[in-house]
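SEQUENCE-TO-STRUCTURE ENTRY
===========================
What this section holds: a protein sequence and its matching fold, both as plain text.
Question of interest: how does this chain fold, as expressed in backbone structure tokens?
***
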Amino acid sequence: MGMFKGLKDMKQTVAAAPGLIEQAQQMQANGLAMQQNMAAQMAEAQAHQAAVATAVITPADLEPINGVDLEAFAQVSAGLAAYNYDTSKAVEIAAARGIAADDWTTAVDGWNERIKANPAVAKEFNRLYTGR
């Protein structure tokens, strides 16, 4: 009787094998996709580091936008910490520094674009923002 049970169990195992093989192949494909994704992310990070290392700030990059220079932009941005980073308070903080609401709104868009476009500007903003 034990032999028949063993044969029955073997039959069930063989019947389940295609599903297990398919599952293993899917896991292998997922693992390979994760490796490729990680390699792409590493290459992107290295390229970004290289871009930051070689980026240069030109005088045009630091031209004030509607009278708001990078230092004022960083200081107003840092001032948001007192308001739990509520960006709706930025106009109020800017006004306390003598910056009109329309000028501030235009400056925010402009400085954000420059920061995205040039890693050296982003690095300088960070230096001014953190005070280091």
About this structure: Residues 33 and 48 are 22 Å apart (CA to CA). The helical segments are 2-54, 70-79, 90-96, 101-117, 119-130. Residues 59-130 form one domain. Residues 2-54 form the longest helix (53 residues).
